[in-house]
Specification:
- The chain has helices spanning 5-37, 44-70, 75-103, 111-135, 147-161, 178-181, 198-225, 230-256, 261-292, 299-330, 335-365, 367-383, 389-404; strands at 170-171, 186-187.
- The chain is an all-alpha fold.
- Among the domains are: 5-141 and 166-191, no CATH class; 299-365.
- Strands 1-2 form a two-stranded antiparallel ribbon.
- α1 packs antiparallel against α2 (44-70), α2 (44-70) runs parallel beside α9 and α8 (230-256) runs parallel beside α10 (299-330).
Length: 416
Amino acid sequence: MGEERPARRPRSHRAAAWGLTILTLAVLAADLVFVVLNASRISPARIGLDVLLAAGALLYAGSGHLIASRRPDNAIGWLLGSIGLTLAISMFAEQYAVYGLKTAPGAVPAPKAVGCLAAAATVATVLLLFYIVLLFPDGHLPSPRWRPVLWAMAVVFAGWGTQGFQAGTTISGGFSNAIQAAGAEYPNPVGFLPRHGWYSDLLQVIFILAVLTVIAVVASVFARRRGASPERRQQLAWLGYVGALTVIWILLLGLASWLHPVLSSWLGSLLWGLVVLTPVIGIPLACVVAVLKYRLYDLGRIVSRTVTYAVVTGLLVGIYAGLVLLATEVLGLTSPVAVAGATLAAAALFGPVRARVQKRVDHRFNRARYDAERMLAAFAARLTEELDTDAVTEDLARSVHAALAPAHVSVWLAER
């Protein structure tokens, strides 16, 4: 009897992981069916957003299944799988309500009640994302002292969830607001909490607690880094890299909103897509790589290149906007000519600007690699001019010692 239990527990975990994944796939399939049925009621952009969110739900479900089946003791896998399910439920509830209220009124039962699930599933999804950040990467708190943050987070999202029962509100949807976009929004059928008064004061208190909780969750990542092993720092770096990249896109999106209307039409859409796509794809991938320790790359070069291209993008966007404004407002050129000229100028500047920015970034943030690469390039240049084997050997030893600072350097030469 004692020997059977270890064999049963993995099977139960695998069955639970498969059950969560299959349930998510079933909800997504139903969502896509209603998307097709509602195609005449929603815009192509809204359909594209739903497809993008469906891909994100699949990625969360798949990564969660992968981790939960291999590391069932790690809560990260179950959290990822649950996010895939709540995201799928939010999308399905929106499309179901649109179909039952607009596309084919009365064809499905309780469309308003199901539509209320969209907002609730959205709240649950955001809550689970914060739990992932707090418990990443081993599925445990940094220390028992962080338990109040865990409970404060639950209080904040419980308070946020009660807004779904506030009188005088309307149901507009979840992540994509598809109900509102289809003109099918309706008064909240379960609203019984007061619109103002004591409940409004309570929401203000919860908002203050939410700000403090978010700060604490971010601080937990830095708390884990203190005294952490190099491997643990690399695991945290993956999640930090996704967060930093998302913040960069948000800042660039804010910058684009202040630019010329010519830019806001296509650049704003592109940056908004990156804002959504980066965390949707990046978080589950970061969790898989970090938790499973599979091909845990050195992030130094990746981060260096990301910072470089983000800075270059910002500079070229500013240059592009400046040239368009100069050509249209000062020189009086037509808009297509101004856009074409600014595009050519930005393309010509890309190479030189990228090289200079990359050099600056490596010099500032990746000094060891920068110095090593410069020393290696200098040695290669001297190697083409030096013919004395002993001099080359001594020069190589000096270069390796200066670049890597090892305790001992030995050079072997093979005789032909």
